[in-house]
Structures are given as C-alpha cells and as structure tokens.
TrEMBL record:
It comes from Winogradskya humida. It comes from the Bacteria. This is Uncharacterized protein. InterPro entries: GH. SUPFAM superfamilies: (Trans)glycosidases (SSF51445).
Length: 268
C-alpha cells in the first residue's frame, strides 16, 4: 500500500523577495498554534518548517543559539540551514553543519543542507559521487507553477506539475547520480493572492497541485508536500511576495485554508 502524503508548512509571516526579506505584523505564536491545529485536524501533525541563515564563521555562535532556542520548545522542526557566506568559507560551513547535526539532530525532524543551491546536477555527481548519493535521505524541490513564470491555466496545471516532477526525478536527479530510491520532498509550494489573483483561485490551484502530487507519489517516490506559507506577510500590500499565505496577516482564513484542511483529512 502506498503511504499517504506527509503535509508540512512554513508557519511564519515573512518571505524572501527580490529585494530581501518582506514582513509585516509580528508573528502571533498563539494564533499560529491555534491555526496549525485547526488546519491539520485529527490527522497527523503538520511538519513545521523553519529557516536559519548562516553568513560565515562569525555567525556560527549566534545561529547555534537560534537553533537551540527553536528546539527547546519541543517542536520537531524541519530545519533548513541556508548558506549565505559572502566569503565562501566552505570548511567553516561544513564544520557548522556537522555541529548542528551532532548537537540538535535527535530533536529535529529533518535537516536540509542549503536551499536552492547553485550547482549544476553534473557538478553534484562529479563532486559528491556515490558516497553523496548514498548519504541522502531525500531530495527537495521548490515548485511555484503559475507564479514566477508564464501564467498557467487550471486545466494545464496538472501537466505542468507532472512535468516539473518528472524532469526533477528523471533528468536532474538521474544526472546527479541520485537513484529513484531517494524520496522527493516538495519543500515549498504556494500561490499568492492579490490583484488578478483571487483568493478563490488560490484554493483551486493548491487543490489541483496537491491532487496531482498525490496521484504521482508512488510512481515518482514523492513523500512530502509543504506549504509556503501559513499567513501573509502583509495582506495590505499588493506585492505578491507579501501575500502567499492561506491566512491573511490578521490570521483570518482565506478559502484555501479550509480547502487545505479538507485535503489533509482526505489524503494525509
């Protein structure tokens, strides 16, 4: 029997835009907890995702403190270690990653090493070889069809999602020497609301994507779908980077919130 999809979410009210971090009202952690419990319903707990930025050896102590604070609350985070060192000190980065795993690994659900790396897949194979492929627990992909490229009609969306996942599995990962036995996680997927992006359409788009992923999960070995993001950074702004949430920035739900709750109950 094919396993159910594992659902996750980035729960905070910030996003990365072309000019840096976009934000709005402060995060309300009581509201976050309440809305996460509501959307996950009686099913499995949502996998909570969080990002920390390492900007070089001088940042190591501060980032360790940030991670220690995160895990102290008992939440089994899906932790993303983001490499942002202008000096390119790879040795210090490797040491930092090893320290994170040694100190905090048992209290985390997962550790993602880098996000959106700028390596070619051939370069991954040549640099890492078979030992790198054997060490992987999963390969993550962020997908944003109908957001950053040409608009995609709802009818064409399943085919677009399938093509993205097949290209990742059959071309990118295969070129990198990563076997089909290594699961794929969709680490980020979302659809912003705003001008020309109605809230009702957000619900339709996310449901279409999730059902497509669910249909392909056995064939392509896809185990996770994670939402970016729970709430808007600032619903008063028209910029799409401020409005990726299935909640508005006052934590009131958009239609997609209720749709997601139903899908998690059905497919999770």
């Amino acid at each position: 029997m094919t396993a159910s999809l594992i659902f996750g979410v980035f729960p905070l009210g910030i996003a990365g835009g072309p000019d840096g971090i976009v934000a709005g009202p402060p995060d309300d952690f009581e509201a976050i907890g309440r809305m996460v419990r509501e959307v996950q319903g009686e099913g499995h707990p949502l996998l909570p995702r969080v990002y920390v930025l390492w900007s070089g050896a001088d940042s190591t102590a501060a980032v360790h403190a940030q991670i220690a604070n995160l895990v102290a609350g008992g939440t089994p985070w899906d932790l993303v270690l983001c490499y942002r060192d202008p000096a390119g000190d790879v040795a210090a980065w490797v040491a930092f990653v090893a320290q994170v795993v040694q100190r905090h690994g048992r209290r985390l659900s997962a550790v993602q090493v880098t996000g959106e790396p700028n390596l070619t897949w051939t370069g991954v194979r040549e640099s890492g070889g078979s030992s790198f492929a054997a060490a992987l627990d999963y390969a993550g992909i962020d997908i944003y069809p109908d957001v950053f490229g040409p608009r995609v009609s709802l009818d064409a969306l399943p085919g677009t999602v399938e093509r993205l996942l097949r290209d990742f599995r059959e071309q990118a990962l295969a070129t990198a020497g990563i076997p089909a036995a290594v699961p794929i996680r969709i680490c980020e997927n979302g659809w912003p609301t705003g001008p020309d992006r109605p809230e009702d359409q957000q619900a339709e788009v996310l449901e279409t994507i999730i059902r497509t992923v669910h249909r392909l999960r056995a064939e392509l070995n896809v185990t996770h779908w994670q939402l970016f993001t729970l709430r808007d950074a600032d619903s008063s702004k028209d910029d799409l980077f401020h409005r990726f949430g299935v909640l508005r920035s006052d934590y009131s739900p958009k239609p997609a919130f209720h749709s997601l709750r139903r899908l998690i109950a059905e497919l999770g």
